[in-house]
Design goal:
The structure is a single chain. The model has no long low-confidence stretch (mean pLDDT about 80). The protein is about 80% helix and about 0% strand. The chain has helices at about 5-25, 30-35, 40-65, 70-85, 95-105, 110-145, 150-175, 175-195, 200-225, 225-255, 260-275, 285-300, 305-335. It is mainly α. The protein has one domain (about 5-145, about 230-335). It is globular.
Length: about 350
């Protein structure tokens, strides 16, 4: 797999713009002073927690796979998916089809069955994500009086996540509905597809899609019958999310400015959900940064701390992951061409 340099250039340019804007708002001298006081040991700890997040999410996925590749190989595939998701505006899931394809190649498994394990792991990830948001609400109700609009915004974000979870369950129970939805989408996209592929045959493609859906649902049924594996995958997902939130919290400690856990969790939840909305920006770059910083400021965090903590956290959780993903993708390209 080759890296699309044009796609990579977009988040880089947006990221540079965000960095320039945030440093301008902080003020260069204040920015220099704040950086000089950063606890580098705690920053390193935040980086380790961030890497731990990826490791545990990979473990969560590996539990669900029938024919398992080695952990290093699966970790590499997961990182390639992280890169694609980070440079693609697609609900934070642009890398999932790529992961399914690479897993299929690594294990000689049908890509539809591979995608079923990926989607199941993504759905399991929603459970601890909702749990984090609810804990954040609990903290805020005890430590901060919420305005009506704050409560409304939080409930709206939670509603989006819960709706996605319920939609998956519905489509799992009603395979016919999933097929109908797929048929409608492909039919509407046919004129656009034929611009690039004139000989595109709607009927033949639909038949192929239906076969894939059958395999996909068979794999979902296999997974749903193994409660032990689902429970273990869920535990790994919980640890992954805890590591991710811990990384954000440690960044504030590195700036010598502890933050209310409720404010952190709710800000994190809202920013992540908004960043998943497609067509806003690839991987939420710029969007997540801005929302996160504004929410911190609106809850009383000093502006310079809010902006710098956001920059540091995104440097660790987005840009470092993107760089590691590029390395994994280059290694994948070498592996394929051997």
């Amino acid at each position: 797999m080759k890296i699309d340099k044009r796609k990579l250039a977009v988040p880089v340019l947006i990221g540079l713009g965000v960095f320039g804007l945030f440093t301008h708002e902080i003020g260069f001298e204040e920015f220099r002073v704040l950086l000089s006081g950063v606890d580098l040991v705690l920053v390193l700890l935040a980086i380790l927690f961030n890497i731990g997040t990826i490791i545990f999410f990979t473990l969560s996925w590996r539990v669900l796979i029938a024919e398992k590749p080695s952990f290093p190989r699966l970790f590499q595939i997961y990182l390639v998916g992280v890169l694609v998701s980070n440079i693609t505006p697609s609900l934070g899931a642009g890398g999932e089809p790529v992961k399914a394809l690479l897993l299929g190649n690594a294990t000689d498994t049908n890509s539809s069955a591979c995608f079923a394990t990926i989607l199941t792991q993504r759905v399991l990830n929603l459970v601890p994500f909702i749990f984090v948001a609810l804990i954040g609400l609990f903290f805020l109700f005890f430590y901060k009086n919420l305005d009506f609009w704050e409560v409304l915004a939080i409930l709206f974000m939670l509603g989006i996540v819960i709706t996605a979870l319920l939609l998956f369950i519905y489509l799992y129970l009603r395979k016919d509905r999933l097929e109908q939805l797929t048929h409608k989408v492909i039919k509407r996209l046919t004129p656009l597809i034929r611009i690039f592929k004139r000989d595109f045959n709607y009927e033949e493609y639909i038949h192929t899609i239906d076969d894939s859906i059958d395999l996909f649902h068979d794999e979902l049924k296999r997974l749903s019958k193994n409660n032990g594996k689902l429970a273990l995958a869920l535990i790994y997902s919980f640890i992954g999310w805890i590591s991710n939130v811990a990384a954000a919290y440690i960044v504030f400690l590195a700036l010598n400015h502890p933050i209310n856990p409720g404010i952190l969790m709710i800000t994190y939840t809202i920013a992540m959900v908004i960043g998943m909305i497609p067509l806003i920006s690839p991987g939420g770059v710029g969007t997540v940064d801005s929302i996160m910083a504004m929410l911190y400021i609106s809850t009383g965090v000093p502006k310079e701390i809010a902006l710098l903590s956001t920059l540091l956290y995104r440097l660790i959780s987005y840009w470092l992951n993107t760089i590691i993903g590029i390395t994994a993708t280059l290694a994948e390209h070498i592996t394929i061409n051997k």
